[in-house]
Amino acid sequence: MDLTGKRVALLVEDLYEDLELWYPYYRMQEAGAEVVILGTGEENYESKHGYPATADKAADDASPNDFDAVLIPGGYAPDIMRRHAPMVDFVQKMHEAGKVVAFICHAGWVPASADIVRGRKVTSFYAIKDDMVNAGGEWVDEEVVRDGNLISSRTPKDLPAYCRTIIEALSEG
After folding, report:
1. C-alpha separations of 33 from 54, 78, 167, 169 in Å
2. Is residue 80, in this structure, part of any structural domain at all?
3. Is 95 a catalytic residue?
4. By the 8 A CB rule, do 81 and 110 touch?
5. What's the structural domain count of the chain?
6. Residue range 61-66: average pLDDT?
7. In sequence order, which residues have a C-beta less than 8 Å from that of residue 26 and are 6 or more positions away?
8. pLDDT tens profile 110-139
9. What is the pLDDT of residues 79-118, one digit of tens each?
10. Percent of the chain beyond pLDDT 90?
11. Domain that holds residue 63
12. Looking at residue 77, which CATH number applies to its domain?
């Protein structure tokens, strides 16, 4: 499926899970999308394993109007991301605009803080199941869950299904 002309925001913060950032980054590019890495204000971020990522711009300076989707990697980064109000606001506005909001592993913390999982079917790494349920989500243990514009997955082993579902969703719009 060709994503030429689609713009995807990929959020980053220190301690991101390497595969959950880089696998979607390259997969979306391979499908033809332009991928823009949005950080919380620093230029560079280190993964859980020390692999660097450079932000193209800060979430504070990004407009949801300029993107078709936002992807949120897991690791411990989402716990830092959700403390950055402009990043949470960006995710909330993407959701309000009906754009794809995709999250994997611990990344469910960001949509939970944006109050967009209430009444929606979602999945995540099992350790944050209670957080997703307490945020009003209907949590299920499946490799990928799509509920409207929300797409969620559990762990790196689910990345093929996660990316395939994101691409399908972007191809529809």
Report:
1. 18, 23, 9, 13
2. yes
3. no
4. yes
5. 1
6. 97
7. none
8. 999 999 999 999 999 999 999 999 999 999
9. 999 999 999 999 999 999 999 999 999 999 999 999 999 9
10. 99
11. 7-172
12. 3.40.50.880
Q: Is the pLDDT of residue 67 over 90?
A: yes
Active-site choice (49, 84, 95, 106): 106
- Residue 70 near residue 98, CB atoms below 8 Å: no
Largest distance between two CA atoms of the chain: 38
Closest CA to 72 of 115, 120, 37: 37
Whether 2 is in a domain gets the answer no
